[in-house]
Amino acid sequence: MSDPSQPLTLLDGQRSGEVAGRTPEKSQKDYPLAARLCLWFSWAQVFASLWVWWFYGSGELMEEVDQEEVKHYHNAKVMLLPAMLLESCYLLSSRNNMNQLKLQASEMSYLVILEYCVKMTYYSTMAHFNGGIVHKNLRAFGPLRGCYTVRYIGWSVAVPNLITMNNYALAGKVSFRDFVTRLFPNLFCTWAYILASWLGEVVHDPVMGWFLVILSFVAYCFAIWDQIDIILEADP
Fold first, then answer.
1. Phi and psi dihedrals of 152, rounded to 5?
2. Which of 104, 160, 193, 218 lies at 20 to 30 Å from 224 by C-alpha?
């Protein structure tokens, strides 16, 4: 059993899985410092975004949407479909002979398919609905640019899922549950800073807008710090 005075790491999950097959006997308050900062800044972004949305609202919608970008969304969804079908074929073919290594690869395939599904969904929505809900990006420099709400909603799912995929290779013998428990602060922080940055770009008030943008960048830095910790925690 690991020392309860030490922070929760991936190695704790591996040891608990090897010995007792259960999750580490730790709570979220025992996360490493970077992970705790991710959690704190996640909630700070959630409450700040809700406060700004309630009192300041969002900005104006674009009157015209760049049709070249809409064509790009059509092309993107077509290009993603073959890749998703190939991954689905691999998943189906690997179900007959499932050892520990293939089981982990199979779980990874589910994440990959989810990534493709999310991207196809928001690209299809933007392609068929002329970009979807498109606000003016009031924090952008230079010519007026659109801020695609559907894209940010898609990113808020796709990017945390991509982080899960990239880190799952480090899990080793750690169960998926233990792995996600350790990764949760990073995923929550990523989800929060994506949506906070969207609102920061579209809100009318420049002070509140830059406040949310800066807050999201700070949270992003803590997510990177936590990512480095996760890599260092992995069993070599």
1. -65, -35
2. 104
- Asked whether 186 and 38 are in contact (CB, 8 A), the reply is yes
Rounded CA-CA distance 202/198 in Å is 7
pLDDT tens digit at each of 236 positions of the chain: 445 555 666 656 554 444 333 444 445 567 899 999 999 999 999 999 999 999 998 888 988 888 888 888 888 888 888 888 887 787 777 666 555 555 666 777 888 888 999 999 999 999 999 888 999 999 988 888 889 999 999 999 999 999 998 888 777 777 888 889 999 999 999 999 999 999 999 999 999 999 999 999 999 999 999 999 998 887 65
Q: What single letter denotes the amino acid at residue 77?
A: K
